[in-house]
Every structure is written in C-alpha cells, then in structure tokens.
Amino acid sequence: MTNVVFDMNNMLFRSMFVLGGFGGKAYTFDSQTETDELMRKLAMDMSFLIRLLNPSRVIFAVDDKSWRKNIKIEENEGYKGQRKLSEYINWNNIFGILDELMA
Predict the structure, then answer these.
(1) Which helix H or strand E contains 62, and what residues bound it?
(2) Contacts of 20 (CB under 8 A, 6+ apart)
(3) Where are the beta strands (DSSP E) in 35-95?
(4) Is residue 25 part of a domain?
(5) pLDDT tens for residues 48-77?
(6) For residue 3, with 0-12 CB atoms within 10 Å meaning exposed, 13-18 middle and 19 or more buried, which class applies?
(7) Measured in Å, how far apart are the chain's first and last C-alpha atoms?
(8) Phi, psi at residue 53, to the nearest 5°?
C-alpha cells in the first residue's frame, strides 16, 4: 500500500514562490485572480503527484500554528522561531485557500 502525505504549508509556500518569485511581478494575493492562480497551482501540483504515484491513500497535513517558537535548540537559538509573515501579502486570502482546499 502506498500513501502520499502532503505537507500543505510547504506546498502552499512553494507554490507562492513559483507564482510570485519568477516573472518579475510581485504577488500580494489581494485579487481574486491571484488567489485563483495559487489555488490552480496547488491543485495541479498535487494532481500530478497523485497521478504519478497512484497511491492507496492521500493524506493532507496542515499546521494551525508554529510549534517551533516553543522549541529551544542550543546550537542554533531561535531556529525558525522568529519568522515574521510578510506585511505586503494578504495572508487571510492565502490561508483561506487552505481552508477551502481542506473543506
């Protein structure tokens, strides 16, 4: 039996980078067009992997908050714990996409 587990936060940020990181246009995800493009990119990436692997089960994992802020790593104090969300991106629309996909 083959299972596929999607880390949806990872998938979301990868898709955001591909859409907004290339092409010279800064995405803010304020418009419906931009959020639709992100939804389409996520769906296409997941569909491709599901068709490629033909799994028995597909599992979607989504974090509701960062657990890293509570973890202390002596070798690298504050590892990923101090990350801030970019102010120019409409995060309500971004996380709304995850809510819609997981509904």
Answers:
(1) none
(2) 26, 27
(3) 57-61
(4) yes
(5) 999 999 999 999 988 766 655 566 666 666
(6) exposed
(7) 26
(8) -95, -20
User: What is residue 69's three-state secondary structure?
Assistant: helix
Instruction: Say if 71 falls within a structural domain.
Output: no
Is 11 within 8 Å of 42 (Cβ atoms)?
yes
Mean pLDDT of the chain: 83
Asked if 3 contacts 59 with a C-beta cutoff of 8 angstroms, the reply is yes
Domain contains 50: yes
- CA gyration radius for the chain? 16
Whole-angstrom distance, CA of residue 37 vs CA of residue 43: 10
- Specify if 58 maps to a domain: yes
Percent of the chain with pLDDT over 90: 39
The structure's pTM equals: 0.77
DSSP count for the chain of H helices, then E strands: 3, 2
- Domains contained in the chain, number: 1
From residue 64, alpha-carbon distances to 11, 31, 61 in Å are 15, 24, 10
Q: Which domain holds residue 31?
A: 3-64+85-102
